[in-house]
Amino acid sequence: MRILAVDDTRANLVLLQAMLKRAGHEVVTADNGEHSLEVFQQESPDLVLMDVMMPGMDGFEAAQRLQEIAAPRWVPIIFISAAATEEYYIKGHQSGGADYLFKPINQVILNTKIESIKRVVDMQNTLASQNKVLQEYVDKDEEERRISRHIMEHMAESKGLEDPMIRYMLTPAEQFSGDVLCAARSPSNRLFVLLGDAVGHGLAAAINTLPISGTFYSMVYKGFELSTIGRELNRRIKETMPTGCFVACGIVMIDPAESYVEVWNAGLPTFYCVDSHGHVSDTFESNQLPLGVLGGNQYEVESHIISYQAGNQIIMFSDGLIEAENSEGEFFGIERLLSCLHHPENRLDDIKHSLGEFLGDEIPHDDVTLALVDMPSVDTVASEAYETLSDDVLLTTIEESSEIDWKVNFHMGVSEIKSLDLTPMLLGIITQFRGLESHNQKLFLILSELLNNALDHGLLELDSALKTGPDAFETYLNARQSRLREIEKGFISITACKISINGTPFLRITIDDSGKGFDYQKVFGNSAENVQMHGRGIKLVKQLCHAMEYTGNGNSVTVDYSLEDN
After folding, report:
1. Per-residue pLDDT averaged across 424-431, rounded?
2. Residues 269-277, mean pLDDT to the nearest whole number
């Protein structure tokens, strides 16, 4: 050990130095209290032997100053004094001394005390080393968490949750939440709300949700259907996450324009649809395994469709809410949740208040997430294009083009039509061409209306009158799904090209189908039937386009969309 010996008597200091060297220690010396502070700072000894009675700064004061200099490192101090009194002994320990020796010093006792203290010093050094390693680990962990938090905050968009149709709470049990809540609007202005609950808690669970938010937002913005989004979410979780990392997930899609709601629940607690009085009108139980259990080819999304009822609201939540426990081990439960829904304007606050009172000082052991999704009485989210739709839109003749910049053709057979979301797929290809990306939303509406018309009225021969009456769209969609499963032959052909007419650039889209067609003249007539839902889509396309022309029996349509004025 390196030992600092301090004594104002030269003879005592020489004797002490000799005894310490004989025991194999490295010795540095100081002849008074002030000098000991200088030597201590220069030499950083492991142990100090401090004489008590010295002129100027005595040993007790010097010891206290040394400890201040050494902090936070612990340096043991053994006081040496000829005064063998109880008062000095107590004062030595009060001054931070580790032990006390009385003069004349016995070599054996000195060696024994030093060895005893050396064991403590070694333990302290080991502990300090371990603390340093632990602190480095803590600092690294905190930095990784900071980076992870930054990444997750930027991947999980929160802007969509500001939608006026949504109210929510998201309370993590730890620093990171294993629940994810996302909301976004599609190009057709449908509202999609997703809630996911990963296995476990904290950062590990939060990481499991990372593939969900990015995939969800990307696919909603591109206009994919709920079923396609659900299948892709499952594929992403299955392929990117380790075995055993499952995510319970649910999506609510609200479409006020078409007056229907679609709900999918895979592993979450039952969702509830309640009216303005808090009475349950529909329930949506989980009927599928969570994401990541089955492979992509095995997973089929089974959703529920209900009619849009103005004033109703859908309640979706993770199990952390109903399984929150109070000090007596009781669960918050479904009954308490449903009892908070009688006043529509205060539902979220009532739930928060009830949960807070129930828990008291207890903290939920799981992430608590809840979303209330409105069906407003006034269609505040209807597309402006629909709102301003004119009743006197007429067909026009397609002009000859003077120049073609590019042209692409697609031919879709029955198997592709059944398995693909044609609109976002085709739009994703077309908008890769320069200058078209800024027209994404309007082109989505045009393509989706024309493709749906070719499929529904051409190949599937669905009657638009099915959309009229109570539960109309639910009936229409059920008939659509049934006929789509049964159809065995047919095709839809799509051609898109960028042309120039008298110097003005246009996107020309032609869609042909193998069906019997439909009475397109009836849609553009002046009968009262035109104001019904089934005539609105085609009229919207005509209003968005410069020209529109049907040929044949209505199973071939061409539109010119201006790339200059839109």
Report:
1. 91
2. 95
